[in-house]
């Protein structure tokens, strides 16, 4: 561009560049003066970009004030729009504020000029929306120039408040700089004159103290501080009167701030007589205003006006620079913070976290930690590097979500785990019906910033538009939230929510898959529903899910589970689960089902490898860790099984299912006293009775006491009521006929534990009986 002309302006030098354009120093030979010319970048030079440039010009042209830069001309040259404006020499307030802050008198002097400029803009119906110290210049003469009306807009009277970001920055994206954003803007209200007042309060506080009053190690923490914490204390040298002005500007309730900027001007002017600069203060001011006459750097006002794009969080102070990621091939998406202020919306924040994981997990070249593990860090005080080490990942994604009506706003940021370096961040906003497109866009941007190449199919999946019914989607997320409790009440509530979602949207395949999984959990994990009752319902829901969406990994995994437990169709189940893993290599449910199938069919090496893979994806999942212990147990690798039980109990010392595995191992090793210690469901009294029976009768006394417990409905839990468990007890007693009678009943009732009869160590005493081989054939298990 240098040496070319734009209309009557001859381009002399580049002054700066930004998201959508460049600013040049140019010469207006007609009037013999230098100007700043802002030029739209070629890639942004479409109709929308030119329209934004013209809108900005119209904003600036409405303002004529000594503390606001002057617009000279707007034009277009060779398809590239430009604005010519006042060129000034000076420094931004951000560069001028010393670490400890300015003298209060200087703060008042500058504050009056900033407030006066804002007052003029508001009188013209224009609000700034991005006031900050970087957008305020001070000339060598000490005059303030408020810059960057590129994000400004006209304030319409009686305009409804909306979460929509209908702005110069483009549809669907939040504008502004978070450290200066008012609480109501973070919560989705449209910026207005009162949010400019808040930003002015932040600027004045920063001038007094040398730092913004709300800070945090991440965007999430920063937003939380703005919404819920008081501002940082002002230095003691700040007078009570000036302190009162700043505190009123920083009221979280906009109704409690000043009504107009004119009132702020009057309040600051009233402080001037009290704050004459002493000579030492003037000397201090000269040190931080290092003007050197002709040697001063020419900083174009328009250099700061270059920002046409929405804020790029990665460029914010304290959030890293324009960093690039190395070869990040493993990620954890930490729980998105719920910024709604409503605890009842936690299900939505958790659901959005899981959705983002779901969008990233199918990328086979990227390891994405599953939901169960990342949810362990909800509200954690641990550092990013510490979390990354525990999860074994190279990158962390964190952020926040805020829902207002049918609008959703997500802020996401990418962090390089080892260095805790912030690589990228962005804000997104959409209608709730477009939430899947929003999640796919976030996932697509993340893969771009870790420089991950996507296959054509993966790229297509992340760009495919899919709308949802907002109410049905809300019900689906509530169902997922309750299902994750793995409790009887929670899983039954989940089924209810899924059914309501289907009533709203009969083609909701994911809710059908959720129902299928829920019935399996009630029978196999919770034990409050019989397999005879649960399995037909599970299979019917899986068939419906698969019919509605053959490309849904969850549907194939649900069908695999139904074929496994209901039909004992080993080949069909394996085909379905492998298809689920092809569609989504990171889906934890598919890995879990595949391990069950491998374990039941005696493929122990594959089973152990699959269980380890599931733990890689979900290292803090109790179920995955417990499942690996079962794989070792059924492979008769008891030492490895005990070691894995200990690792599981390190995650949760009270996880009863792991204790069941340990008790089974101790029984196989003949250590019945230790086995009793690891059966917490017995309670102290029954445990003591069992121990006394063992001490008096040895192994036979132990198994006789277990048989008595199984026949006492009042004390027998779900496990002891199962026919498979009775078969274990009879096998321990050497009562083969009774054992096989119990196994026959288990077969007829389709009990889940019977799937493992081919390899279960508890049935080893029956292996040489021909009836065991016959049972394995009836089960359809490979010999």
Automatic annotation (TrEMBL):
GO molecular function, one term: ATP binding
Keywords, sorted A to Z: ATP-binding, Kinase, Nucleotide-binding, TPR repeat, Transferase
Domain spans labelled Protein kinase: 9-275
TPR repeat intervals: 622-655
Keyword Kinase: yes
Record-listed ATP binding positions: 38
Protein's UniProt keywords contain Nucleotide-binding: yes
Residue ranges crossing the lipid bilayer per the database entry: none
PROSITE patterns cross-referenced by the UniProt entry: PROTEIN_KINASE_ATP, PROTEIN_KINASE_DOM, PROTEIN_KINASE_ST, TPR
Xref: Gene3D superfamilies: ABC-type transport auxiliary lipoprotein component, Phosphorylase Kinase, domain 1, Tetratricopeptide repeat domain, Transferase(Phosphotransferase) domain 1
InterPro entries cross-referenced by the UniProt entry: Kinase-like_dom_sf, Prot_kinase_dom, Protein_kinase_ATP_BS, Ser/Thr_kinase_AS, TPR-like_helical_dom_sf, TPR_rpt
Pfam families (alphabetical): Pkinase (PF00069), TPR_16 (PF13432)
Name used for this protein in its record: Tetratricopeptide repeat protein
Organism: Eiseniibacteriota bacterium
Taxonomy of the source species: Bacteria, Candidatus Eiseniibacteriota
């Amino acid at each position: 561009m240098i040496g070319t002309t734009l209309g009557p302006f001859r381009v002399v030098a580049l002054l700066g560049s930004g998201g959508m354009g460049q600013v040049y120093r140019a010469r207006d030979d007609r009037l013999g003066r230098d100007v700043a010319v802002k030029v739209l970048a070629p890639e942004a030079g479409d109709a929308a970009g030119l329209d934004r440039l013209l809108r900005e010009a119209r904003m600036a042209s409405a303002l004529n004030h000594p503390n606001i830069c002057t617009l000279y001309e707007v034009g277009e040259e060779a398809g590239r729009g430009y604005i010519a404006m006042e060129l000034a020499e000076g420094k931004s307030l951000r560069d001028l504020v010393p670490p400890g802050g300015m003298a209060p008198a200087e703060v008042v002097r500058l504050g009056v000029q900033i407030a006066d400029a804002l007052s003029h803009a508001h009188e013209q119906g224009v609000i700034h929306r991005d006031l900050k110290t970087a957008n305020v210049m001070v000339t060598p003469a000490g005059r303030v120039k408020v810059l960057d009306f590129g994000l400004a807009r006209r304030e319409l009277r009686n305009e409804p408040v909306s979460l929509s970001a209908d702005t110069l920055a483009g549809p669907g994206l939040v504008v502004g700089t978070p450290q200066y954003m008012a609480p109501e803007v973070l919560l989705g209200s449209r910026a207005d004159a009162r949010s400019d007042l808040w930003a002015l309060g932040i600027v004045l506080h920063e001038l007094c103290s040398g730092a913004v009053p709300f800070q945090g190690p991440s965007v999430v923490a920063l937003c939380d501080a703005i919404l819920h914490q008081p501002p940082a204390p002002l230095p003691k040298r700040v007078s009570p009167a000036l302190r009162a002005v700043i505190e009123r500007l920083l009221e979280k309730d906009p109704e409690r701030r000043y009504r107009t900027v004119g009132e702020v001007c009057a309040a600051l002017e009233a402080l001037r007589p009290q704050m004459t600069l002493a000579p030492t203060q003037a000397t201090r001011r000269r040190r931080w205003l290092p003007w050197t006459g002709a040697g001063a750097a020419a900083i174009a006002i328009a250099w700061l006006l270059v920002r046409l794009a929405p804020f790029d969080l990665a460029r914010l102070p304290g959030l890293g620079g324009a960093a690039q990621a190395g070869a990040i091939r493993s990620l954890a998406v930490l729980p998105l913070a719920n910024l709604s202020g409503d605890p009842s919306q936690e299900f939505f924040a958790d659901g959005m976290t899981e959705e983002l994981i779901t969008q990233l997990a199918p990328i086979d070249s990227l390891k994405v930690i599953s939901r169960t593990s990342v949810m362990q860090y909800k509200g954690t005080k641990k550092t990013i590097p510490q979390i990354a080490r525990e999860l074994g990942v190279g990158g962390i994604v964190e952020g926040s979500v805020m829902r207002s009506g049918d609008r959703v706003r997500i802020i996401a940021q990418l962090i390089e785990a080892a260095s805790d370096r912030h690589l990228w961040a962005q804000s997104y906003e959409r209608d709730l019906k477009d939430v899947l497109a929003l999640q796919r866009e976030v996932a697509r941007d993340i893969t771009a910033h870790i420089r991950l190449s996507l296959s054509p199919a993966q790229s297509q999946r992340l760009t495919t538009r899919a709308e949802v019914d907002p109410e049905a989607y809300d019900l689906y997320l509530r169902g997922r939230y309750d299902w994750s409790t793995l409790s009887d009440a929670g899983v039954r509530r989940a089924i209810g929510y899924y059914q309501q979602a289907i009533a709203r949207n009969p083609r909701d395949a994911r809710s059908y898959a959720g129902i299928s999984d829920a019935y399996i959990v009630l029978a196999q994990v919770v034990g409050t529903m019989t397999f005879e009752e649960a399995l037909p319902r599970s299979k019917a829901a899986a068939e419906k899910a698969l019919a509605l969406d053959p490309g849904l990994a969850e549907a194939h995994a649900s069908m695999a589970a139904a074929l496994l437990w209901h039909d004992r169709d080993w080949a069909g189940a394996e085909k379905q689960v492998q298809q689920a893993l092809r569609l989504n290599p990171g889906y934890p449910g598919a890995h879990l089902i595949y391990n069950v199938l491998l374990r039941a069919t005696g493929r122990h090496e594959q089973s152990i490898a699959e269980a380890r893979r599931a733990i890689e994806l979900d290292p803090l999942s109790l179920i995955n860790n417990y499942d690996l212990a079962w794989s070792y147990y059924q492979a008769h690798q008891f030492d490895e099984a005990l070691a894995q039980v200990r690792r599981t109990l390190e995650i949760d010392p009270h996880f009863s299912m792991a204790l069941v595995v340990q008790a089974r191992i101790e029984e196989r090793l003949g250590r019945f006293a230790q086995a009793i210690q690891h059966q917490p469901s017995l309670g102290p009294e029954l445990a003591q009775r069992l121990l006394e029976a063992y001490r008096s009768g040895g192994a036979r006394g132990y198994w006789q006491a277990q048989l008595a417990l199984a026949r006492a409905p009042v004390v027998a839990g779900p496990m002891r009521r199962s026919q498979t468990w009775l078969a274990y007890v009879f096998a321990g007693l050497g009562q083969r006929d009774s054992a096989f009678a119990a196994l026959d009943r288990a077969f007829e009732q389709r009990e889940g534990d019977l799937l493992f009869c081919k390899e279960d160590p508890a049935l080893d005493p029956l292996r040489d009986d021909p009836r065991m081989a016959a049972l394995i054939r009836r089960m359809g298990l490979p010999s």
